[in-house]
Specification:
alpha/beta, Rossmann fold, six-stranded mixed sheet, 5 helices
Length: 177
């Protein structure tokens, strides 16, 4: 299956790099854009066929229910192949202490293999179990590292941007060696 929505072409280095993310409230999108800028990477936004239209409490209620019940929504498709990339960064928000349903659907269907990968998540608390679940979906790849950002649009945004830049450089160095 081929996926690629919202591809933004960036300057290409020797290693072709892609940042994949899903974001509903903007935190993961913001960090994905910072990572893509630092890595000079293409960027891909996972998009659901039918997006959750809710806001505020109802967004958290509906999204949390989907997440806790391990829903796998249908995603929009595109014609760009992930196979064209050497290094992939994958980011997700945490919903109700679980992997976001759109990210779960993407990881189940994309069949990513033999890639170098960096994982990131945006949350209000812990990401450890979400990172572990992502790793299980990505068996057969080399996970180079992971990082979490706690509500980066609300909390010390500039320090999270610096953290993302440093982490991204570290992942690129690992991928290059």
């Amino acid at each position: 299956m081929i996926f690629q929505i919202g591809l933004k072409q960036k300057w290409q280095s020797k290693m072709k790099t892609l940042v994949i993310y899903y974001s509903k409230t903007g935190n993961t999108k913001y960090m994905a854009e910072k990572i893509a800028d630092e890595a000079k990477a293409d960027i891909f936004e996972i998009q659901r066929e039918k997006d959750i239209k809710s806001k505020g409490f109802m967004l958290y209620f509906r999204g949390g229910f989907e997440s806790m019940t391990k829903r796998v929504p249908k995603l929009k498709q595109s014609d760009i192949s992930i196979d064209d990339y050497d290094l992939i960064f994958i980011g997700t928000p945490v919903w109700a202490w679980n992997l976001n349903p759109a990210t779960r659907a993407f990881l189940k269907s994309a069949k990513i293999k033999n890639k170098k990968i960096g994982l990131f998540c945006c949350c209000a608390g812990s990401c450890d179990s979400i990172i572990e679940e992502m790793k299980k979906h990505l068996e057969g790849n080399e996970i180079l590292g992971d990082v979490k950002f706690i509500e980066p649009l609300k909390n010390d945004t500039e320090s999270y941007v610096q953290k993302a830049k440093t982490w991204t450089k570290n992942i690129i160095d690992k991928a290059s060696s």
